[in-house]
Amino acid sequence: MTSTDTAVLSVAGRPVGRYVIRPELPARLSPRPYLHPVTTLAGTAVTELSPADHTHHLGVGVAVPDVEGYNFWGGRTFVRDQGPTELDNHGSQRHTTFQLCDPDGFVEELRWVAAGGELLRERRTVAATELTDSAWALDLTFSLTNVTPDPLSIGSPATNGRPGAAYGGFFWRARKESGAPDVFTADTEGEAEVHGRHADWLALAGSTWTLVFAGATGQTRRDPWFVRTEEYPGVGSSLAHDERLPIPPGDTVVRRVVTVVADGRLDRDAAASLVRKAVSP
What we know:
The chain has 281 residues and is mainly β. It contains three helices and 20 strands.
């Protein structure tokens, strides 16, 4: 179901996500469409919108801090040898049209615009699928095409000189609770062990909910995970971890992340089983 400004995602007739198409946000937050709230099937919210610690964190979406020097993440820009700096360099993602929009998903066209010009054109595909009576999957694919006549590249604070801060790409700002969530993969656990590493899937477990993130293509699985639990709960897939990601004119970068949204605290076996079901060939 859609209105002019929002679309509602449903699973088995139950609303599980609200997609804000044309958010009214200040330029400093790099305005862009986002999903919030996203909930479990029992109705527990597992996203946050503009929390006090990072007002530019907008639920679930695609955000990049450096596209040829323009900020599509929001907030300050990390400048080499200077640190986080307030700059007038923010871009915005502008909804163009839905090629498809059903209760269980949509295909959207967007324009990434900065300084009055279009840098990237995106096709975003989102689908919601029931897995069990207590878990569902959010399948998000984004394709970014360089529509300029010149080469572009995507960077991160890490590629600009801030070690460990390779955020940019798919990002999920999770629910903040009194205690930090647990984070684990198939073979390790803890923020220090999983942040910046490769893993087929990664689970974030809160008090009554679990999110399990999985790269659903070979290229997506080659991107390391960006993970925060102590400072704030958030998980992303890093497009530019060790070096900038070039996009020649006319070329397209594609990534697909499937997220299991489950009630309860899953263990490793349950998380792995649900991922296999969600990312079936």
